[in-house]
C-alpha cells in the first residue's frame, strides 16, 4: 500500500544516513529514529489488518436476509352517509317573448344570452309547456304557459339554444292559425234560441248580451241600431223606451 512505501523509503534513507554518520551521538539518534519508525510501521500494519478483518466480518450481516414485514389486514371504510336537504330553486319568470307560426307549428323566441343546451330543462304536455333555464349569470329563469290556446303534440316539441336566444318549438295537434298563445274563452257566444221562445225575444237576448259585454263603441253602435229599428213605433210598444232601460 502507499503508506508502507512511505515507511520503507524513510527507513532506507535513515539507514543510509546511519551508515554515513561518524559521530556516536548522531548514530545513536539515527538508530532511535529507525526503531521508532519501525514500531510505527508495525502499528499501522496491525491497524490495517484489524480494519480489513472487521470489514470482512460485517459483510455477511449486511447481506443477511430479513423477513418481510407483516402486512396488517386492510379494513374497508364505509363512506359516511350524508343527508342533503335540497334547497328550493328560485326562478325569474320570462313572461315577455315573441313568436311566429305556421299552420302546423309555432316558435317562441326568448332572448337570453350565456345559456347552453345542457342547462335547459323542458316539459311538454298536451295543452301546456314549462321550460327552465339554470345558472345563467348566476340566475335561473323559467318560461311556462299553463294552458295553451290549443293542443300540441308533446313528443314532437323541443328547445334549441342559440348564442343569443332560446327557441321553443311547438308542434300543433291540428293545422290552424292561433289567435294567441294563451287560452282565452269566447266572450261573445251566440245563444241558441229556444223552440218555445219568441224569436224577437231571442234577438233581444243577443243584443242585450252584446251590449253588456261590449265596449263603449259597441254600446254606441247597438244603441244607434236600436234607435233606428224602433223608428215609427208607438211609445207603448214593448220595444219602446231607452235601450239601457230595456236591458
UniProtKB/TrEMBL annotation:
Taxonomy, superkingdom: Eukaryota
Localization, UniProt: Cytoplasm; Nucleus
Alphabetical UniProt keywords: Acetylation, Cytoplasm, Nucleus, Phosphoprotein, Ubl conjugation pathway
Function as written in the Swiss-Prot or TrEMBL entry: May be involved in calcium-dependent ubiquitination and subsequent proteasomal degradation of target proteins. Probably serves as a molecular bridge in ubiquitin E3 complexes. Participates in the ubiquitin-mediated degradation of beta-catenin (CTNNB1).
Chain residue ranges for the region called Disordered: 37-69, 222-247
Chief location: cytoplasm
Basic and acidic residues bias locations: 37-50
GO cellular component, one term: nucleus
Annotated protein name in UniProt: Calcyclin-binding protein
Presence of the UniProt keyword Lyase in the record: no
Domain (SGS) ranges: 167-247
Domain CS: 92-182
Gene3D superfamilies xref list: 2.60.40.790
Amino acid at each position: 500500500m502507499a503508506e508502507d512505501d512511505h515507511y520503507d523509503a524513510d527507513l532506507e534513507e535513515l539507514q543510509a544516513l546511519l551508515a554515513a554518520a561518524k559521530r556516536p551521538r548522531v548514530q545513536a539518534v539515527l538508530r532511535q529514529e529507525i526503531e521508532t519508525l519501525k514500531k510505527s510501521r508495525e502499528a499501522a500494519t496491525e491497524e490495517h489488518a484489524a480494519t480489513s478483518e472487521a470489514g470482512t466480518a460485517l459483510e455477511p450481516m449486511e447481506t443477511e436476509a430479513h423477513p418481510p414485514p407483516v402486512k396488517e389486514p386492510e379494513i374497508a371504510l364505509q363512506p359516511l352517509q350524508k343527508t342533503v336537504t335540497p334547497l328550493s330553486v328560485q326562478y325569474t319568470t320570462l313572461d315577455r317573448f315573441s313568436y311566429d307560426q305556421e299552420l302546423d307549428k309555432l316558435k317562441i323566441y326568448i332572448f337570453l344570452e350565456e345559456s347552453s343546451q345542457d342547462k335547459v330543462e323542458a316539459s311538454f304536455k298536451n295543452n301546456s309547456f314549462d321550460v327552465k333555464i339554470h345558472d345563467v349569470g348566476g340566475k335561473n329563469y323559467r318560461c311556462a304557459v299553463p294552458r295553451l290556446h290549443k293542443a300540441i303534440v308533446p313528443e314532437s316539441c323541443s328547445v334549441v339554444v342559440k348564442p343569443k336566444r332560446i327557441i321553443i318549438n311547438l308542434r300543433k295537434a291540428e293545422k290552424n292559425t292561433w289567435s294567441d298563445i294563451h287560452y282565452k274563452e269566447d266572450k261573445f257566444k251566440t245563444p241558441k234560441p229556444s223552440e218555445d221562445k219568441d224569436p224577437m225575444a231571442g234577438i233581444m237576448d243577443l243584443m242585450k248580451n252584446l251590449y253588456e259585454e261590449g265596449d263603449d263603441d259597441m254600446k254606441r253602435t247597438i244603441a244607434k241600431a236600436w234607435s233606428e229599428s224602433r223608428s215609427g213605433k208607438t211609445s207603448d210598444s214593448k220595444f219602446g223606451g231607452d235601450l239601457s232601460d230595456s236591458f
